[in-house]
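Service request form, structural biology core

Requester: graduate student, group of Dr. S.
Request type: structure prediction, single chain
Budget code: on file
Notes: please return the result as structure tokens.

Sequence provided:
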Amino acid sequence: MSRDLAGVPLEAAWRDRLDDLAASRGLPLSGDLGRLGAALREVSDAYNAGDFRFRWTPDRLAARLHFFVPRDQAKVAGALRDVPVSPAWLGSGPALELLDVGAGIGASSLGAVRFLRAAGVTRDIQITLRDVDAEALGVAREVLGALPGVRLRRDEGASPRFDLVLFVQVLVEVAAGRPEAAGDAACAALLRTAVDALAPGGLVVAVEPALLTTTRRLMRARDILAAQNTAIVAPCPHGKPCAMLANPRDWCHDDLDVDLPPWLHPLARAAGLRWQGLTFTRLVLAPTPVATPSMRVVAPLRDSRGRKERQLCGLFPDGSTLRWVDRLDKHTTPANEPFGALRRGDGVCLSPIANRVGPDTRVLLEDPTET
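Core staff response, request fulfilled:
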């Protein structure tokens, strides 16, 4: 299930929807590559530089609509791809309550709705959008308002217990301008407050850019939360301190084989951005423990002549949690054959657990969404 739900690109019909929305607001359409490409480059450079206060001109807003809605919706689906959907969400019942913090123009909520529908959730979904940018929220309501079974709730009065809370590219702004420790603490406190507002079976999903600084900040916030006994659902298969933090050049992020839809490739080219693959870093939390894989592949693969290596995160017999494990090609057997097909982000079970996969080692691809 996880690889099937790893962020499906928006269908071509969405290009027309977004063009209609742009036209209704007097914004450039998706085919205006000169204006959109330059604006998209400006927005991308500003975000990478940590400048979140630049002015949203009409061209920049259009670039946000045409490029970031299709790209960022897939990140939410990718972040949830291997997280078990609560049985309470399936079947009939009251609407699921979704809170989108820093909702922007609705890309995150769109991705969550698409994921939930693909995962078999049929009941209505009620979304609370929260953002300081009133213009962006207006666009978000138009992006989401036509989705079947989706209701938009005004963010006022008493809040319900939420089933799903999203923080997509929000923590980078929370930490901006703060010393490292203060930024880490502020991010962890915000996420913990959200966990405390969840309904039973609920989840908090944080997604950040897959950059060294932003990822390591989320890793440090994760350690703060784990020490507070917050349940870590993904990507970590354990609640011990993150071993990757020991090396300042290491960062744990996802790199999925999910490309932008073909109709967006010309715009990506015009802005000098890539359209291949989907990178992000994530942290999924819950108030109580949820099924996780025994181990997870957390680094690019190292395959050399006669040998395959995978860096695995999990609980090893000696108490360590991060290790390179290899298998000699001459030791490949039906029992351990899945080892060679493992990709970054995959959950895996080794039996027995050791530094080397031998002929008798059993290797199973583990997906907590499959029971």
